[in-house]
Amino acid sequence: MLYRGCLLVAPIFLSTKSFTSFILGYIIMKKKDSNVTVLKKRSTVSYAKYGYIFSIPFVLAFLIFSLYPTLYTAILGFTNLRGVGKTNFKFLALDKFFSNYEYIIFKNPTFRIALMNTFKIWICNFIPQMILALLLAAWFTNRRVKVPGEGAFKVLFYMPNIITAATVAILFNALFADPIGPINSLLQKLGIITDGKPIKFLQDKGAAQAIVIFIQTWMWYGYTMIIMISAILGISPDIFEAADIDGASGIQVFFQITIPNIKTILLFTLVTSLIGGLNMFDIPYLFLNGGPDNATITTNVFIYKLAFSGGYLYNRASAASMIMWLLIVACSAVMFFVMRDKEEIALKKQKKLQMKEAKLAAKGVN
Fold it and tell me: What is the value of pTM for the model shown?
């Protein structure tokens, strides 16, 4: 049963992230290659085979733990597989072939609630996370300001990311508990609560969502900060020196030099955050099990409950998994298109046009 659960949930995260990582790696390498002069081969020895050999472990892991679960889950979405311990299934009739998908999209309001919650929680934690990470990265990499104890600050900011989700969920559940939770006790001592009635954070929908958003931001801004720092340090120091000589202010340097030069890394962060955000499971599930009243239920929590609670509807859970997989791929494609390097594309088109004109001129055709 546990293995089947891995097959249902894994395709959303593993295959999408592997595909996205491959595309992003290709874009980064192409960007680097455009600035490097290609030298002629001096040797006839080919080392390409070693690259294929070293890629074998990844290919095997991808086939076993990503491609196979994805295909298996896609197949289950068109079957009647349900029930505890069931492994045999039959494909649905042609007139009901997409009935599992129709049920999830049109007949299950909980899925729509979970989908809205997922996007809401992701957007509300991603925006402050990126702002905070960029500000801290700019602070740590500022050539004009030396931060005392910089290494210690980086460790402290990154620390929440290495704490297990179960520990964080239990911690915040205890902090906001009522009537004798530490937060309620502190609010009473500060005089914010005067009537003696504790605030029921864990029973209020808005408060529960806000806590989950804060947890996600707190856990991941340090990771994003490290990525941004690495990206900024990869920019040539000569550019910053030229800006200093020209008298550019810190704000001008940040918006006109730093941000444009880390656009590729920003795209990487945005896409990986999207994948992680739409696959959110551990904190919403462990914190309040998707409650109160489905206020913190996400699509992955919904899929888990559909597959392993009540009727063990593996077929419908698989359909929901594939819907989320397609949604993540579509959103990632839109982000790639919106954040594409338009100047580089225009330059390539111009080079192609020049080459075409040169060929026509060589043939004597004007």
Answer: 0.80
